[in-house]
Write the structure tokens for this entry.
Amino acid sequence: SAMARHAGPRLPLIVKNLIPTLSSVFDSQRITATAFFAELLSSNVVNDLLLLETVMDNMTGRQKDACTLVRMLALRGLGNIASGSPEKVRKHGAKLLASMVNGMDDKDDPHNLVALEAMSSLSKLLDHLEDRDIQSMLLHIAIRIRPFFDSEQPDLRRSSIVLFGSLTKFSEGTCEVFFEQILNGLVTLLLHLQDPKAEVVNVSARPPCCPAGTGVRRPVFLNHLREERSLHYGEFMNNVCKHLMQSYPEMLNRLILTNLFYFKSHWADIRAAAPMFIGFLVLHVDEDNCQQVDLDQLISGE
């Protein structure tokens, strides 16, 4: 970052000399060069010096690197374009989006470091991407990040929930299958308001994480999830379920099934929240739609 501020005229030669290092047989050299390029992309100097495409293409080329840290840093660099050259994100949107999706699908990443970076970087890029590029990948991304909602790693839970909340802003007019993902995701967000980690609770409570089109009015969230007041979870859930059943009573069974999954959650507060959620849903649904409820399944909790 210091060189981006003070050594602009020298950067083209430095970049030229560092590029071969990205193919070094030594992990440490590839990591160092990738980290340098990743940080460089957070400055607009690469755009001013006509280096953006060169550096970006080299970061994209590191996605198949054998070293997990190199792959992670490459994605961080691509995400940094959102702050360094936001006006160029739209032009390269399809390529950047494909890189993030590939990162989330990384199979050789036991600790999900690459997936975590991909979700964080995609969240930074979203506001600068074309709606049509995002909508073509919405369903795939939503399905891919769902398992992270309940990860043992708080950072993964937090990043996936932030990304999901941002994605739902692009959901208008999308297919019914994605709408089901939104509703299922809403259940998870509401239950994770009882998450054991405060940082996960905080992102679950953000207004953008009230997915559009679910029938839950933003004021319902805003009235209960204000920073200056503590959340009365039961009162809040009662209000949310009332709105859900007024708007989508036919979704009762699907919402119940999603909640049943959390009866076996690792976290006691979430296990307690799930039956409460079901109780309020049933309380507010009309008699005709109560027929959807499989009492045997509900009683057995499976």
In short: The radius of gyration is 22 Å. The longest helix spans residues 68-84. The chain has 19 helices and no strands.
